[in-house]
Write a structure and sequence with these properties.
By secondary structure, the chain is of the alpha+beta class. The protein is built from twelve helices and 14 strands. The protein starts with a helix and ends in a 9-residue tail after the last strand.
């Protein structure tokens, strides 16, 4: 039993030593850049009522939630995702606010997945939410801030891929797909499963033109030049408006000077059903999944009683650190430690020296002289 107790459950781990030092610094650097855009800290509970993350909200599937009961019989869950919690909090405390609200947050999320594929069940996330602004400038601010935060933390080789769910939804509406079929098709296209998508459309008897448009979505990715091709590929107004929005966002990103980090993917479709328009993900080499996930969720706050548009993003700190380690990225600002050794005869003198260094902001270990050569003498 004692051997088992020193191990962690599957999907969680201890973080200590140099790795924890790097994590702390990266979190601080990301936070500095986000706060520089005027975002204010917010903290929500680690667990919430089940309904905050229910199927109707469009978040994590129930089977992937850590569920438990309180003494009154209420079903509670460990948060799998920050956005619904922030939306609930904003609706409760900022119901009457009519000006844009900017929040930033940091904490751990929990997902009870059975097929881990190397993924952790508990990860640290940092993100931001901009509530009450439905403008193109708000979309661009989120993407630009993400880019600047990653670069400020020490990551230089990455790409932010941007899409717009309205493009796909416009084609689905034109094809007459019901919501269930649209969600299933979204999963196939998002996973780049072309054959699964084609089989589904054949089963639902979609006409040839709509079928071709829907399948072509997965091919529409690349630089800003792909947007004109995407617009030509459709005839419905909803999809064309989605491209117009992306083109305007790109122009603002050029104003920020971050366009070299931006690409486009019209086949990028999130598993979170609360996203409504612009979505984006950040990729870098060294990890197999996106290190950044974000997008617009203009209808989510209505679930909690506040009618307001919103857009946000989250950076998965654990994946970001893994990528930076594998790339050999330099993390600046990691604090060093000074070791001072004392003998019984000079303890007071060494203590005064340690106190002086600590007052100057240094980290000082005061150790017996018997440990000076790295081993007990």
């Amino acid at each position: 039993m004692s051997k088992k107790l020193v191990h962690t459950p599957e999907g969680v781990r201890d973080i200590y030593g140099d790795e924890k030092a790097r994590k702390t610094v990266v979190e601080r650097l990301l936070h500095e850049k986000i706060k520089g855009y005027g975002y204010r800290d917010i903290q929500t509970p680690t667990f919430e009522f089940f309904d905050v993350f229910s199927k109707e909200v469009g978040t994590t599937p129930s089977k992937e939630l850590y569920k438990f009961f309180d003494k009154d019989g209420n079903t509670l869950v460990l948060r799998p995702d920050f956005t619904p919690s922030i939306a609930r909090c904003a609706a409760k405390y900022f119901m009457e606010e009519n000006v844009p609200i900017r929040f930033c947050y940091q904490g751990n999320t929990f997902t009870n997945t059975s097929n881990l594929q190397g993924k952790l069940k508990e990860v640290t996330q940092m993100g931001a939410e901009l509530i009450g602004d439905d403008s193109v400038q708000a979309d661009a601010e989120m993407i630009a801030m993400t880019i600047e935060a990653l670069y400020h933390a020490g990551l230089s080789d990455f790409q932010i891929s941007v899409g717009n769910l309205e493009y796909f939804k416009g084609i689905c509406a034109e094809a007459g797909l019901d919501e269930e079929t649209e969600l299933e098709l979204r999963e196939y296209i998002s996973g780049k499963n072309y054959f699964g998508a084609e089989e589904l459309l054949e089963r639902t008897h979609v006409n040839r033109k709509d079928k071709e448009q829907l399948l072509k979505v997965s091919e529409l990715f690349g630089t800003a030049a792909i947007l004109s091709e995407a617009k030509k590929a459709v005839s419905n107004t909803r999809s064309k408006n989605a491209i117009d929005r992306l083109e305007k966002v790109y122009q603002v990103l050029c104003d920020y000077g971050v366009e070299k980090y931006v690409s486009f993917d019209l086949g990028m479709l999130s598993k979170y059903n609360y996203y409504t328009g612009i979505i984006f993900k950040g990729y870098t080499y060294g990890v197999g999944d996106a290190i950044v996930k974000g997008g617009r969720y203009d209808n989510l706050l209505r679930r909690f009683g506040k009618k307001a548009p919103a857009i946000g993003f989250v950076i998965v700190i654990d994946d970001l650190l893994a990528a930076m380690n594998r790339q050999g990225a330099v993390i600046s600002g990691i604090e060093s430690y000074v070791k001072l050794y004392y003998a019984p005869t000079n303890f007071k003198e060494m203590l005064q020296e340690a106190k002086g260094l600590r007052a100057a902001g240094k980290n000082v270990e005061l150790l017996p002289q018997s440990y000076e050569n790295g081993e007990l003498r």
